[in-house]
Write a structure and sequence with these properties.
The chain is an alpha/beta fold and 375 residues long. The protein has 16 helices and 13 strands. It is globular.
């Protein structure tokens, strides 16, 4: 029986790997081992509960105020010990977190093949986003097995001399998760139900990237101007746990009665809020893939994106963090119905909801068949 180890530990990884872990666990020919680094503690626990997934190893590495250097050191020690004990046939990592890089590197040191889910995303600027871009590039150098969401991602890998035989375009597993959760009955708190029922156009705001901290004031001023200029617009802002983001948000927009600052939402609730908003302003990566699946336009408050397929398809618009540009582009979508339809009615370029099954099928066909480096 094939033994496949999945290593992840953040909320976004949990959302996108949950369909893969479920598919692995349901296959009678696979022994699935899930190592939870708990790089995010409470936020990931919510996701695992939502998808009814239990870890085989919980490394409990969440530590308040820890540096990336400290996290990396602790990860390499603990993940290596688990790999040494379990001797998996393949280690799966996802995306671009510190857990992703260390999981891949620890497997490499023990000559265990690595599969990279969500491979080939690039901004080609190693400091944007930081440290995610360099993590994904490093993992591509280590991995043998590359699951690319789109053909653009595959082309990125081919340009970096990754063998085409070891790249499989599968779509993004986040769409698998999105469609599963969106079909469930909404369980939003009454407070949120009441906000969404006002009849106003709701903008969902999410901002958390490290590289955007210095630009937050500009974004907040833009949000304030948008609400002031439109009586029929309101904003919901689930504030990240980062104390710097929280303090600045309270100072800049905390007193506006049409801007609702709320605690971070559980994933299921967040999906049902997304289903009911008019547009989204974000610096998140995953939302750029999820929102188009629900027909919601996205303004990306970053200077770069590793998801250019959404920009090219027309579901995303890259607006940076300039106050004036954010106001201009938001007003365009609020007032111009044709502009709104051009973004909201485009087919999602990031997948159709069958990515996890494609990944597992490909693993079963190819592990031990010569494509992967043997242990």
């Amino acid at each position: 029986m094939m033994k496949i180890m999945s290593v992840f530990g953040t909320r976004p990884e949990g959302i996108k790997m949950a369909p893969v872990v479920q598919a692995l666990e349901q296959d009678p020919d696979i022994e699935s081992i899930f190592v939870n680094t708990a790089q995010h503690r409470d936020m990931l626990d919510q996701v695992l509960h939502l998808f009814d997934i239990t870890s085989d190893y919980d490394l409990n590495l969440m530590k308040e105020g820890q540096s990336l250097e400290d996290l990396t050191n602790r990860l390499i020690d603990k993940v290596s010990k688990v790999i040494e004990k379990e001797e998996p046939d393949l280690v799966l990592v996802h995306g671009d977190t510190t857990t992703t890089f260390v999981g891949a590197y620890a497997a490499y040191l023990q000559k265990v093949p690595v599969g990279h889910v969500e491979a080939g995303l690039r901004t080609h600027n190693i400091y944007s986003p930081f440290p995610e871009e360099i993590n994904r590039q490093l993992v591509s150098k280590i991995a043998t097995y590359h699951f690319a969401p789109t053909n653009r991602n595959k082309e990125n890998l081919l340009r970096e001399n990754v063998s085409g035989d070891n790249i499989q375009v599968v779509g993004n597993t986040v769409i698998d998760a999105l469609l599963e959760i969106s079909r469930r009955t909404s369980n939003l708190p009454n407070e949120l139900e009441n906000i969404l029922a006002t009849g106003k156009k709701t903008i969902l705001l999410t901002m958390h990237r490290r590289e955007n901290l210095e630009a937050l004031q500009s974004v907040y001023r833009a949000i304030h101007r948008i609400v002031a200029a439109n009586d029929d617009v309101q904003v919901i802002f689930p504030i990240h746990k980062n104390p710097v983001i929280r303090e600045m948000a309270l100072d800049e927009i905390g007193g506006n009665t049409d801007i609702y600052l709320i605690e971070p939402l559980e994933y299921e609730q967040f999906i049902h809020v997304m289903k009911n908003v008019y547009l989204i302003i974000t610096d998140s990566g995953g939302i750029q893939e999820e929102a188009p699946g629900l027909g919601i336009p996205v303004l990306v408050a970053r200077d770069t994106t590793e998801r250019p397929e959404g920009v090219e398809a027309g579901t995303l618009r890259l607006v940076g963090t300039s106050e004036d540009i954010i106001v201009l582009e938001t007003q365009r979508l609020l007032s111009n119905e044709d502009s709104y339809k051009m973004m909201s009615e485009v087919q999602n370029p990031f997948g159709q909801g069958d990515s996890a099954n494609k990944i597992v099928a490909y693993i079963k066909r190819n592990v031990g068949q010569g494509l992967l480096v043997s242990k």
